[in-house]
Design brief:
The complex is a heterodimer of chains A (388) and B (577). With 388 residues, chain A is of the alpha/beta class. Chain A has two domains: 242 residues, Thiamin diphosphate (ThDP)-binding fold, Pyr/PP domains (Rossmann fold, 3-Layer(aba) Sandwich), CATH 3.40.50; 136 residues, Rossmann fold. Helix content of chain A is 41%, strand content 19%. Chain A has 13 helices and 15 strands. By secondary structure, chain B is of the alpha/beta class. Chain B has four domains: 69 residues, Alpha-Beta Plaits (2-Layer Sandwich), CATH 3.30.70; 131 residues, Alpha-helical ferredoxin (Fumarate Reductase Iron-sulfur Protein, Chain B, domain 2, Orthogonal Bundle); 157 residues, FAD/NAD(P)-binding domain, CATH 3.50.50.60; 140 residues, FAD/NAD(P)-binding domain, CATH 3.50.50. In chain B, the strands form seven sheets. In chain B, strands 4-3-2-5-18-17-16 form a seven-stranded mixed β-sheet, covered by helices on one side. In chain B, strand 8, helix 13 and strand 9 form a beta-alpha-beta unit. In chain B, helix 3 crosses helix 19 and helix 8 packs parallel to helix 15. Classes of the chains: A alpha/beta (388), B alpha/beta (577). Bound molecules: iron/sulfur cluster (2 copies). The site of one iron/sulfur cluster has 15 residues of chain B, from helix 2 and helix 3. The site of one iron/sulfur cluster (SF4) has 15 residues of chain B, from helix 2 and helix 3.
């Protein structure tokens, strides 16, 4: 293990280099390009043995690694925003085919207006595709998540999306502890799929399934999803044994407080500072970071929030006509809980607008000022003038 | 840091149910239930077969030949035609005119391949299978020309006992006496006749029948076939016509005498194949030959390649002259010619001619009439008063006790060897149907029809199932065929040609023949290319006992196999529920 200063994007590339990946495909899109660019270099300078496939679109990027993974090789790609949207059809395919692909996804707003900055709506729009979604706060977490993401994916036959914020992680240089190849080899056994295209045992994969069988195939996916939380914990145990780090599907601080923020991505880091300031001032405030969005760790969240006074979900995303997407899911996790806390929902930081500690102080005040949250999500920092 | 292989502790045991063939999915999807039409393998009619007067299944002949299976190719031909080596030389091969391949590059050399196959059969002494069973019915055949010999061949195959009566000293008719040996060497003809005789047919030569003998024969036999041909020449109808030599007699003389006409200037009147044959033979005897024809060269009924071969060898053609008188001029003959000019297109679509002012006279050592022949004795053709069944290549009269059948040049629209063979085949089948008491001979005959004119003996015998559906060029998937030059038969030198009666065209080598046969699309017949099976997206075509079978449980009726069949040997058939 050695410490290096690197971009969040390169933390992901570095992890991919260590994971004995066989095929990488990619199509450039800001702010993801650095990930596949570095991998392409690794492939060309021989420090990585993967076959790198330059494709003409993200749709083909996913199609190519669907093929590679079906043939029994470990496969990776990365994308962002419009690229992810273009991949949508193949995301369903990868999950339905039960392929343990890992993909780097850099949260970026969707146009129009044309915007390259961070926003979670791109990845959250893909929540029903059957992918495991793991959100990361910084480069180290991104690197670690890729490594155990492969381990997890291959244990449950479901694809994993490792998600970082545009620029705030992707282009930010931080110190990252990089495992050695031997350590990774030890942690991540060679890929040995249960089903693959095999010349010795020829078969056609993923053809027609009549109504008689389709539903069982979907139930099978869900059964696998239902094992993810437990297996994730066990994988993290092993990871922790090796490297001493663990993230949890959720992470809580001061969960019995009067106000508990729920965050994801880099907003979490800012929240950590904000609640420290507030606590120092004698306020009762806590925080719950959600790392795993799919499967949604409903039980863990119930447990974490059952003693909170009020819950304030901060969403850097929005589902039009409904509300913040994390808030919706948190509410539905809590709704059958006796004496569940009320849930406030704030929309902040869309399209890369900064979420600062002041943003948290403002939200904190709003929560304190009301016993019952308004039905609609509350948008923070809106310039009403523009909306007239 | 890592002390044990902790990574191996966890195992993938999750539910994993996806569709895949090794599982249940491909078989569990009975995609056959989607289908509303089913692909079927069906042999269709190739244009060449339809154009061939004998209805030979050419696509299969060439399929076998392309694989080097000469014996099988020959066996295919002799189902329909007992004279492959003869026809491979003298047939005017309408098959090639109809060949689909000519839309891609040029027609398949069907005729030359027939010659190659026919000659191998002779040199390897292939014989006809012996006939099993007999009807005990005796048929008398008058005339050992191509129709009579073919009738004997097909009748024998049907179990009839045949006797042939021939007025000449040898069998063969026009093939023997009318076609010069530079086109058809005598030994080839004799060998093919001998093979027919070996089926147990008696041929009585030098037996020109009188009408009384004919009446006796009628009483003696169960049926009589009259294939007497056109035994008398048509008189040209101008003054001095008795000074002319008759073309067919000249050709016969050339065949039997060693003739030298060195340096003589000889004219031939006419524009048909006889005129050309006479002129080309004259060249070979050392004479100078001039054809005098009353219409234009392009109106000549002779085959176009024969006309150009004749010109190539030095035959001169004078067009638009009509003889009016022939008279002696010392040792020589003088012929007066009326100059003609073209008029309107006549009712047969032919350019008519009419006299122009000018006249001229030409002088020759000898003048030969090659304008054609006519019937010799009235009893050679059907009795006008009797009711008859008029078929495509024959006429049958069953008013008397003994059925009388007429065919060959007497009844045929085209006077060719292959049409004569078609006659012989037709009468054999008609007599067989008659003696079996068939209630609708015309309809039964129609069931054996290939294209418009030909009748298939193989279909009659139940050996070939062929749909009437026609394969057009647009039905051939030409993505599967590259352009390839046609293999032409090598020729002897021009010098050798004009100085001898040696056969002008040589033969293919084995390799050339196989290559030429490979050019054939095999229109409408399956040649086991296996495309259908390879392309089926549902793996619904399997091979069972060496044959392709479509599994109806899984065939979804997409038609990919039918489209990918290069040669249209498949079709889609709508399914009735
Ligand atoms: S390509 Fe072959 S089968 Fe087709 S028309 Fe020509 S000779 Fe006949
Ligand atoms: S390709 Fe296969 S599925 Fe399609 S029509 Fe032919 S046999 Fe049936």
């Amino acid at each position: 293990m050695n410490e290096k200063v690197m971009e969040g994007s390169h933390a992901i590339s570095e992890a991919v280099r260590l994971c004995n990946v066989g095929v990488v495909s990619g199509f450039p899109i800001t702010p993801q390009t650095h990930i596949i660019e570095a991998i392409a270099e690794h492939c060309s300078d021989g420090t990585m043995k993967a076959k790198y496939i330059n494709v003409e679109s993200e749709h083909s990027a996913m199609a190519a690694i669907v093929g590679a993974s079906s043939a029994g090789t470990r496969a990776f790609t990365a994308t962002s925003s419009h690229g992810l949207a273009l991949m949508h059809e193949l995301l369903h395919w990868a999950a339905g085919a039960r392929l343990p692909i890992v993909m780097g996804e850099v949260n970026r707003a969707l146009g129009p207006g044309w915007n390259i900055w961070t926003d979670q709506t791109d990845s959250l729009s893909q929540r029903d595709t059957g992918w495991i979604q793991l959100y990361c706060e910084d480069g180290q977490e991104a690197l670690d998540t890729v490594i155990f993401g492969f381990r997890l994916a291959e244990l449950v036959n479901l694809p994993v999306m490792v998600i970082i914020d545009a620029f705030l992680v992707s282009h930010t240089y931080e110190a990252v502890s990089v495992p050695t190849q031997d350590e990774v080899n030890e942690f991540l056994p060679a890929f040995n799929p249960r089903i693959k295209l095999d010349l010795e045992n020829p078969q056609a994969l993923n053809q027609m399934a009549s109504p008689q069988y389709y539903m069982e195939m979907r139930k099978s996916m869900q059964l696998a999803m239902e094992t993810v939380e437990d297996i994730y914990d066990e994988v993290e145990d092993e990871f922790h044994d090796t490297w001493g780090r663990r993230y949890g599907s959720v992470e809580g601080i001061n969960l019995d407080a009067d106000v508990v923020f729920v965050t994801s991505g880099t907003a979490t880091t800012t929240c950590r500072l904000a609640i420290k300031d507030l606590t120092d001032k004698g306020e009762s405030v806590g925080m719950l970071k959600i790392k795993m969005f799919r499967p949604f760790p409903a039980k863990g969240i119930q447990n974490a929030l059952k003693n909170a006074g009020k819950v304030a979900v901060v969403d850097r995303n929005f589902s039009f006509g409904a509300g913040g997407i994390f808030a919706q899911e948190v509410k539905s996790s809590l709704c059958n809980l006796k004496d569940a806390p009320v849930v406030f929902n704030f929309i902040a930081g869309l399209g890369g607008r900064d979420i600062t500690t002041d943003t948290f102080f403002e939200m904190y005040e709003k929560v304190n000022a009301n016993d019952i949250p308004q039905t609609e999500s509350e948008w923070i920092g809106i310039n009403e003038q523009e909306l007239k | 840091m890592v002390s044990e292989k902790k990574g191996m502790k966890l195992e993938n045991t999750v539910s994993l149910f996806i569709s895949r063939s090794a599982h249940r999915s491909s078989e569990m999807n009975k995609t056959g239930s989607w289908r509303f039409s089913l692909p079927v393998y069906k042999d269709k009619t190739a244009p060449c077969s339809a154009a061939c007067p004998t209805g030979t299944e050419i696509p299969r002949v060439e399929m076998h030949m392309s694989r080097g299976e000469v014996r099988k190719a020959w066996e295919k031909i002799i189902w329909e035609n007992p004279f492959p080596a003869v026809c491979g030389r003298v047939c005017f091969h309408e098959c090639e005119g109809a060949c689909n391949r000519k839309n891609l590059d040029s027609a398949v050399g069907i005729n030359s391949l027939e010659k190659f196959i026919g000659d191998i059969a002779l040199s390897e002494s292939y014989t006809f299978d012996e006939v099993e069973g007999t009807t005990n019915k005796r048929v008398a055949i008058i005339g050992a020309g191509p129709s009579g010999l073919s009738a004997a061949y097909f009748l024998s195959k049907l179990g009839f006992l045949c006797e042939v009566f021939e007025k000449e000293s040898e069998a063969g008719g026009v093939m023997r006496w009318g076609i010069p040996s530079y086109r058809l060497p005598k030994n080839i003809l004799l060998d093919e006749i001998k093979r027919i005789e070996e089926l147990g047919i008696k041929i009585h030569c030098n037996r020109e029948l009188s009408i009384d003998e004919f009446n006796n024969i009628k009483n003696e036999f169960d049926a009589v076939y009259l294939g007497c041909g056109l035994g008398a020449s048509i008189s040209p109808g101008f003054e001095g016509e008795s000074l002319l030599e008759e073309g067919s007699i000249f050709l016969k003389r050339v065949e039997s005498e060693k003739m030298s006409l060195d340096g003589q200037d000889i004219a031939v009147i006419g524009g048909g194949n006889t005129a050309i044959d006479v002129a080309r033979s004259l060249i070979r005897t050392g004479a100078k030959a001039t054809i005098l024809y009353r219409r234009r060269k392009e109106d000549m009924p002779a085959f176009i390649h024969e006309i150009s071969a004749a010109e190539d060898e030095g035959v001169k053609i004078v067009e638009l002259v009509s003889p009016t008188c022939v008279k002696h001029k010392g040792e020589m003959l003088e012929i007066d010619l009326q100059e003609m000019t073209t008029g309107d297109i006549d009712s047969h679509g032919r350019m008519s001619v009419r006299p122009l002012g000018g006249k001229r006279s030409l002088i020759y050592n000898k003048i030969i009439s090659g304008i054609g022949n006519q019937i010799k004795d009235t009893w050679h053709s059907p009795d006008q008063n009797n009711s008859k069944m008029e078929l495509k290549n024959s006429i049958i009269d069953i008013t008397g006790d003994t059925p009388l059948v007429y065919g060959g040049d007497l009844t045929n629209k085209n006077q060719s060897v292959s049409d004569a063979i078609a006659s012989g085949k037709e009468i054999a089948i008609v007599l067989d149907l008659h003696f079996k008491g068939d209630s609708d001979i015309i309809d039964s005959l129609e069931k054996c029809r290939v294209g418009v004119n030909a009748i298939s003996f193989e279909i009659y015998r139940g050996g070939r199932k062929q749909y009437k559906e026609f394969v057009e060029f647009k039905n051939v998937n030409i993505d599967y065929f590259d352009k390839e030059d046609r293999n032409e038969l090598p020729q002897i030198s021009k010098e050798e040609s004009i100085n001898s009666f040696n056969e002008v065209e040589k033969n293919y080598t084995f390799q050339m023949a196989a290559n030429e046969a490979l050019r054939c699309f095999n229109c409408g017949v399956c040649n086991d290319c296996d495309n259908c099976r390879v392309f089926c997206p549902d793996a619904s075509i399997i091979i069972e006992d060496g044959k392709r079978v479509i599994k109806t449980d899984f065939c979804k009726g997409c038609g990919v196999c039918v489209t990918e069949c290069p040669r249209s040997a498949m079709g889609m058939e709508e399914e009735k529920v």
